What does this fold into?
Amino acid sequence: MKKTVLKNYAKLLARVGLNVQKGQEVIISAELDQPDFVLLCAEECYRAGASKVRVEWTHQPLARLGAECKSEEVLSEVPAWQEEKLRCEVHRLPARLYLESEDPDGLQGIDAEKYARALQARQKVIKPYRDKMENKYQWCIAAVPGARWAKKVFPSAPAPEEKLWTAILRASRALEGNPVANWQEHDRQLEARCAWLNGLGLSSLEYSSSNGTRLRVGLLRQGLFAGGGERTLSGVYFNANIPSEEVFTSPARGEAEGVVYSTKPLSYRGRLIRNFSLRFENGRAVEAHAAAGESVLRRILSMDEGAAYLGECALVPCDSPIHKAKVLFYNTLFDENASCHLALGAGFTNCIRGYENYSEEQLHAMGVNDSMVHVDFMIGNEDTDIDGVTDTGARIPIFRAGNWAERL
Ligand code: ZN
It folds into this structure.
């Protein structure tokens, strides 16, 4: 890929993704195989005013080796120095850029049960620190093509990495024109869509599709739809996902009834779950089936009390560039932006009107689901219809045949 295009992409991530502030620290998390692009990102962060950029390198084969060779006890521990590091981050609130390039199958075959239990144990220690940082710092997840990932997405292409670069940059509106300006325009459109939805006074969404999906999800009285950029509590505007096509909200915990069918495979920590369905009763997933990976799906649901409840309803039209690209990325950042989706687990406390006036506990008490996991899964396709039902019982078409029912 041309250096100028990559530089513009790095600039997009530093300026629009993170919106690095003067004097702020930045932490970049990336795989070892991406030194050139990480360097470009660090340059752009410094140019934007970062006081210090630190990189946390990871290497998936090494993570895999650790998962295989370490005892569960060792895998589960959060050493004191790591807690100290978390305390330091709570205090200094660095902006965080996560660059994904891993092989979607990279952890295939490891002892998933052991891995999940260890993760669960670590999360118990880590979560209180994460909660303290919630809504206080800018972060952005974006992608760069790793060799194995590219081969998985484009198995027969002569130059799969180049092809995946093109797909990533096109989806991120960073292949043509001025990516920063492209995003500012895209953010404006998403904002207009949110304003429309938030003005309707919806109390529930009803999904239906020819694959058998019939699901009603209750919405929170004080809930808001959000999309595109968001603000930290101190008012810094940033984009947590590049790309992002979704308009989403946090549904009311305990109010989901019916059955929903997945429309794309779910890649969860290197394992694939295919053709699955979930049945909800009083908001809780009480039945789960999958053609492949059913044990992984069940493991997700049992991670903690909140893991079997919904934390997100996201609306993505079929005319979005990622859906139209018809590429299965095997990566949630992209695949979630190809279709309407739901998420199991944690909801978004900042989807509550005036959330800054409440504590995290109060927001959860209002009905925002709490969990250590947040797992998106795709449920939209070309014949998805969604109705919104208002407080007074009026029905409003929100989606028809996979697209917004109303043009704005
Ligand atoms: Zn989402």
Observations:
- Residues 246, 248, 312, 314, 336, 341, 376 surround zinc ion (CB under 6 Å).
- Residues 180-404 form one domain.
- The chain has two domains: 3-178, 180-404.
